[in-house]
């Protein structure tokens, strides 16, 4: 996943609201979101090649979403980053999940990543490139991409033009997704879904054998209800469909 938009503590009815595109090789197999029994129970898609997932939430109200992290150093990883996401979704809070990441990167080697963890009480971005940096998000709308987040984007010498384009896209997307007066989470998500597929914002990617393969819209309600809509293909041409997985799914 290469674009993740988090609205944290923005809406009274839903403290965690996420819109995200996953960019990946077209031939990398995956399975759509499904329920996995816990405890805690988890709803997430699956990477069928390396295992694990890139995005999901659990019945404790914890969200986790991961993207590749671009940097000047080329880092390998003996362990799949998707397995790390699967691991953190066994936690019951964002704080506990963050602690587990700190332990994980000390125990195994991972390629660079940006990992967003959020629940009703906390939201953090964990950036790993051989060194772990942790940013605690304030309430508001945040945009995370491969080269940075919000207004903090790095100059990446191996991909200078792409990194600069991401910074511009993040700025425009964040500005466009500022909540409107009296807007509720479901209305914001509908707008976010449209923008994730709008090529004017540069986050629905099409390339030779690579591009945006899926998109997720997730709402974790203050009352414990949840909602997940998933586009199993690029959102510019693929409709979002509700993910129905039982009680954890709440209002979907």
Q: How do the strands of the widest beta sheet line up side by side? A: 12-11-10-1-2-13-14-15
The CATH superfamily is: Penicillin V Acylase, Chain A
Q: Please bin the fraction of helical residues.
A: 10-25%
Number of helices: 4
Give me the secondary-structure category: alpha+beta
Portion in strands:
35-45%
In whole angstroms, the N-to-C terminal distance is 23 Å
Mean pLDDT: 93
CATH class: Alpha Beta
What is the third-level CATH name, the topology?
Penicillin V Acylase, Chain A
CATH architecture: 4-Layer Sandwich
Q: What Rg, in angstroms, do the CA atoms define?
A: 16 Å
Number of domains: 1
**Helix-strand pattern:** EEEEEEHHEEEEEEHHEEE
Which sheet architecture does the biggest sheet show?
Answer: 8 strands, antiparallel
> What would the principal axes of the Cα set say about the shape?
globular
Point out poorly predicted stretches: none
The counted number of beta strands is: 15
Tell me what you see in this structure.
With 252 residues, the protein is of the alpha+beta class. It has one domain (3-249): 4-Layer Sandwich (Penicillin V Acylase, Chain A). Helix content is 20%, strand content 36%. The chain contains four helices and 15 strands. The strands form two sheets. Strands 12-11-10-1-2-13-14-15 form an eight-stranded antiparallel β-sheet. Strand 1 and strand 2 (14-25) form a beta hairpin. The model has no long low-confidence stretch (mean pLDDT 93).
């Amino acid at each position: 996943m290469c674009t993740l938009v988090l609205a944290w503590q923005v809406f009274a009815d839903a403290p965690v609201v996420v819109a995200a595109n996953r960019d990946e090789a077209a031939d990398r197999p995956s399975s759509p979101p499904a329920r996995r029994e816990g405890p805690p129970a988890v709803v997430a898609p699956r990477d069928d090649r390396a295992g694990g997932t890139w995005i999901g939430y659990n019945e404790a109200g914890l969200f986790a979403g991961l993207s590749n992290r671009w940097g000047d150093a080329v880092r390998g990883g003996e362990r799949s980053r998707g397995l790390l996401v699967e691991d953190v979704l066994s936690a019951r809070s964002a704080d506990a999940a963050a602690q587990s990441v700190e332990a994980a990167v000390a125990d195994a080697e991972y390629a660079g990543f940006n990992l967003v963890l959020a629940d009703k009480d906390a939201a953090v971005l964990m950036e790993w490139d051989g060194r772990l940096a942790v940013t605690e998000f304030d309430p508001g709308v945040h945009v995370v991409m491969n080269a940075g987040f919000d207004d903090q984007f790095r100059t990446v010498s191996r991909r200078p033009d792409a990194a600069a384009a991401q910074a511009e896209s993040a700025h425009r997307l964040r500005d466009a997704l500022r909540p409107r007066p009296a807007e509720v989470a479901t209305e914001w998500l509908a707008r976010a879904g449209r923008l994730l597929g709008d090529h004017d914002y540069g986050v629905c990617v099409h390339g030779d054998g690579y591009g945006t393969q899926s998109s997720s819209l997730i709402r974790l309600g203050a009352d414990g209800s949840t909602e997940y809509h998933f586009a199993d293909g690029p959102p510019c041409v693929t409709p979002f469909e509700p993910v129905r997985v039982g009680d954890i799914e709440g209002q979907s």
